[in-house]
Amino acid sequence: MLALDVGGTKIAAATVVDGVCIDRRQLPMPANEPEFLAAIKSLAAGRSAVTRAAVALTGYTDGISVRGVNRATIPFWQDYPLMPRLRELLGCPVLALNDAQAAAWGEYLQRPDKNCHDLLFLTLSTGVGGGLVLDGRLRIGSRGLAGHLGHMAVEVPPLDAGEASARCGCGRLGCLEAVASGTALARQSRVLFGEALDAAQLFELAAQGEPRANTLLDHAAAAVASAIASSQLQLDLQAVVVGGSVGLAAGMVARIRAALDRQPALFAAEVVPARLGGDAGLVGVAAWAATQEVQP
C-alpha cells in the first residue's frame, strides 16, 4: 500500500505495512498540475510491488475528482480529476479520502481505550480540518464533507475582523479556519507586529515570553475551544485529538485545554495530541483503503 498525504503546503508519501510508515518522503506542494504530478512520480519512484495507492487529501472528493472547501488552498484543486490522473501515473487502483477524516481513523485505531467510540480529530495546519468517528464508524458523508469543522462559525472573531482579507477562503465569515489556521495566524500577526510572521516564528516568540505572540496564540486556542464546545452539544464526544503543524506545536494543546476549561462544564472534553503525529493521515488512509473494494 502506497499512502500519500496531499496538503496545502506539502505532499508526504510512505509505504504503509501493518500501520507503520516505511520509506517516508516529503516534498513541497507545487502550485500547478504538471509539477504536482512530477512530485507524485518522484515520491513513488523506487517502491516495489505497489498494488494500491491511498490518498489523504485536503478538500473533499467523490472518488474521482477533488474540490477544495477553501478555494485558495490549492489553485487547480476544483473538480480536478485526481484519481484518474494518479491511476494512470502509478499504474494501480487509487482510493482517496479527506486528510482529516483519514487522520481521525488512524488516531481512532491507535486508541488504547476501546470504550471510546465517539472521537473528533481536529488538524490545525495551513488550514483547519476535521474528521469524525461516531459509534466506532468513520463518517465521510454523501459529499465527503463530514467533520469539516474548520468552516464552522465560532464566537471568537479574527483580530483583523472587518478587513476583506479576514473572509474565509470558503466564502463565509466567522470560520474557525480564519482565526486558528497557520495562514490565519500569519495574516492576523500583521495587526500586532506590523508584518506577517509565520506560525513557527510566533511559537518561538511565545516561548520567549513575547506578549503579543502569546495573545495571538491564546486567541486562536479560544476559537478552537469554541468549535469543540459547539461540537459537544451536537455529537457528545468522548475525545478530541489535535494534530497538524500548528496543533502539535509546543504548548498549543495546553492552550486549547485552558480555553475549553473556561467554557461551561457541560462542554468539557478530553483533548489530546495526535499519537501518530504528522503520520496520522498516511496511516489512517492506508487502513481505510485496505478495507475498500476497488474496480480491477
CATH class of the largest domain: Alpha Beta
- Multimeric state: single chain
According to CATH, the homologous superfamily of the largest domain is ATPase, nucleotide binding domain
Low-confidence stretches: none
| Strand residue content | 15-25%
Count all strands and give the number: 13
Please describe what this structure looks like.
The strands form three sheets. The protein has a five-stranded mixed beta sheet with strand order 3-2-1-4-8, with helices on both faces. A five-stranded mixed beta sheet has the order 11-10-9-12-13, sandwiched between helices. With 296 residues, it is an alpha/beta fold. A hairpin with a 4-residue loop joins β5 (60-61) and β6 (66-67). The radius of gyration is 18 Å and the shape is globular. Helix content is 36%, strand content 22%. The two termini are 16 Å apart. It has helices spanning 33-44, 82-90, 99-110, 177-180, 182-193, 199-207, 211-235, 244-247, 252-261, 280-289; strands spanning 2-6, 10-17, 20-28, 53-57, 60-61, 66-67, 78-80, 94-98, 119-124, 128-134, 137-139, 239-243, 270-273. α6 packs across α7 and α7 (211-235) packs across α9. The chain is built from ten helices and 13 strands. The chain folds into two domains: 2-101 and 279-289, ATPase, nucleotide binding domain (Nucleotidyltransferase, domain 5), CATH 3.30.420; 113-275, Nucleotidyltransferase, domain 5, CATH 3.30.420. 48% of the residues are buried. The mean pLDDT is 93.
